[in-house]
Amino acid sequence: MKRYIYFTVFISGMTTLGLEFAASRLLGSVFGTSNLVWASIIGLILIYLTVGYFIGGRWADRSPHARTMYGVLAWGAFTAGLVPFVARPVLRLAANAFDQLQVGVLLGSFTTVLILFVVPITLLGTISPFAIRLAIVDSRQAGRISGQIYAISTLGSFVGTFLPVLVMIPVFGTTYTFLIFSAVLVLVALVGLWMEDGWRKALRWTWMLLVLAVLTILWAAGPLKNTAGQIYESESAYNYIQVLERDGYRYLRLNEGQGIHSVWHETELNYGGPWQQFLVAPFFNAAPYSTDDVQSMAIVGLAAGTIPRQATAVFGSIPIDGFEIDPQIIEVGEAYFGMTMPNLRALPQDGRWGLEHSGLRYSVIGVDAYRPPYIPVHLTTQEFFQMVRDHLTEDGVMVINVGRSPSDRRLIDDLVSTIQTVFPSVHVADVPYSFNTIVYATVQTTSFDNLRANYESLTESGQAHPLLLESIQIAWSNRQDTPATGRVYTDDWSPIEWVTNNMVLNYVLFGDLEGIGY
Q: Does the model's pTM come out above 0.85?
């Protein structure tokens, strides 16, 4: 029995961490994957475990029996399996509220879903104290046995950290991940009850598996969201992925869906938004600069290929390397967004690592890898921008898409200050009707006057694509003064998440939420 108690502790620890990661995906599909969401999940689960440890210790002293522990384990496992079904109507309400940015409903929904975890996680938290109490038969071995149980539980937690992310969620989805963890743990509890009281009493608990099976058959396969126009949804190791189709346009949305990451139309190329502003980048070089001078391009944050599609139309079939960390998004781009250009090489790699190891130099390097409004920390530092410059040609330009609020431009100011330590010229242009700003950094010393001169030259030639001319007009009309030098982000120190969190919270609490764009 002692060995089986150790096995129970291992599976319980694995399930607890597995549920935590499944909870992040359950919430992330609606509320996003920001560090605020993660902090809420981790913090509350730690509180629930703390309560479970406290209750479990007292409970084990009052009823030091294996049947008690396995009964508690069965209830914890069963209630964990109910979470996605109870949460689904709340999450759908929240998804609709997110589309309409109803802050009160969002906060209430977020709190409600987190509260759903209080019962299963608290009950699972009682298992380690129970196991220690049952395993100790000689007080002189208390320290050794306690250490063994905590080590085994932690080892299970280690497995539970990777199993849902690398295997279960991408293969089975979030709901089935909850159900699999739940069913396995119920089975562990039933075996423990059988070993303690015989199979007849253990059979009394099998109704839990039957209920989970019925719920699986009836509701588990339904869509996570019921957004109007949804033609595809899936979960990868990195994202909840949605494709919407409205009036002939297709939109790629990830996680909470506030950011539109790619757009496609069978015949149209002009979608507004930030993508076409990447086309402007080379024309900050001295005039006359033509589309033929652009020899190659790299995109960090390929998504479903809107930028390469527009760039191919404007510059011709130049070689384009697109770095996209999520290979399933690449598959979606090829299937739903026409991302089949022969000149595009889609690389399923982290953008910084992939660019650093590319061995190539590009005319334009675009960075569009943020999950609104968060940019990955390692793509905001002086070292990253130096690496980008090292991979640009002598007339190369870096262009980066940055989020902001109408009244808070600190993120832009800090990034510009950092970029200015590497590039001689940095230019800023807002994207109209959105909370996006485009930052251009050139290897040569340049100015906005060059952009105007190139626009005149391109117009006179009569050869430029209309999308390019319109994009230059938009950048010129929405140009901003380059901020004064300020803070510089490095790999060692980059408080971008602090700045972004503060910007978001201030805007949610005090700002007007209408008008959020791409």
A: no
